[in-house]
Amino acid sequence: MPGRWKLGSVGPPLEGTQARIDPDTGEIQYTGRHVFMGYLHDEEMTQKTVDENGWLYSGDIGELDADGYLSITGRLKEIIITSGGENIPPVLIENEIKSELPVLSNVMVIGEKRNYLTFLCSIRVEPDATTGAPTDKLDSVALAVAMEIGSDATTVSAAQNCEKFRKYISDGMIRANTRAASRAQHVQKFFIIPRDFSVDGNELTPTMKVKRSVVEKLYAEDIEKMYASAGK
After folding, report:
1. In what order do the strands lie in the sheet with 104-110?
2. Is 186 in the same domain as 132?
3. What are phi and psi of 41, to 5 degrees?
4. Has residue 128 been placed in a domain?
5. How far, in Å, CA of 82 to CA of 229, rounded?
6. Are residues 222 and 205 in the same domain?
7. In this structure, are 185 and 173 located in the same domain?
8. What are the beta bridge partners of residue 62?
């Protein structure tokens, strides 16, 4: 709509359209005369896509603010369901962590069927001049953070073992937790991975989305270590 915009939002629903957020899953749902009535001769698919009152299940996770502006924060298929049955939108939490910690390139929250959340994170690095693949050398942003926190780390391998870097990330994690929608969305532990995600490394899609199942398999041992001392 002309003149109606807000940073970080896709705007308010268009005229003739209503939008709502499912209180249980956080899914964005739409209704209006533009929403189709269903699939021809396929009642099962229709019921999975549109409810009996004409509300379309978008598959997107989002928020409607007090002014009616809609923000899309993730996909429903990315929802994490904890051991306690809580529905957790990982992308929203990942974005909060990255906003607190500019030194991080990628963050991936873990917690499916777990009793608390953890995350894997990669530190910003210089790409290889020839291949573009991530190297071990911290980039200018990461080096500036290292200097700010009094660390002499210049590589990811050094940062992994640097207590000052770990404290910096831990403090950012705690700040991000203060903005969580519930205690179930608090992250409690993290692991700094040795190499940033990349398309060539098969951790990212061509559109730069994280392949969660691939990353979980790749770092399965490190993930298990974060849960081995549960409650401690």
Report:
1. 104-110, 117-123, 187-192
2. yes
3. 60, 25
4. yes
5. 17
6. yes
7. yes
8. 72
Residues 106 and 155 in one domain: yes
- 193 and 102, same structural domain? yes
Contact 123, 144 (CB under 8 A): no
In angstroms, rounded to a whole number, what is the distance separating the alpha carbons of residues 117 and 180? 12
Reported in sequence order, the residue ranges of the chain that DSSP labels E, i.e. its strands, are 17-21, 27-32, 56-64, 70-75, 80-81, 87-88, 104-110, 117-123, 125-127, 134-138, 187-192
- From first to last of the 232 residues of the chain, give the pLDDT tens digit: 566 788 878 899 989 999 999 887 788 999 999 999 999 999 999 998 999 999 999 988 888 999 999 988 777 777 899 999 988 889 889 989 999 999 999 999 999 999 999 999 999 999 999 999 999 999 999 999 999 999 999 999 999 999 999 999 999 999 999 999 889 999 999 999 999 999 999 998 887 888 888 999 999 999 999 999 655 4
Range of the domain at 109: 80-228
- How far, in Å, CA of 158 to CA of 162, rounded? 6
Q: 206 exposed, middle or buried (CB, 10 Å; 0-12, 13-18, 19+)?
A: exposed
Amino acid at 57: Y
Q: What is the pTM of this model?
A: 0.73
Cα 137 to Cα 158: distance, rounded to the nearest angstrom: 10
Which residues are 190's β-sheet partners? 119
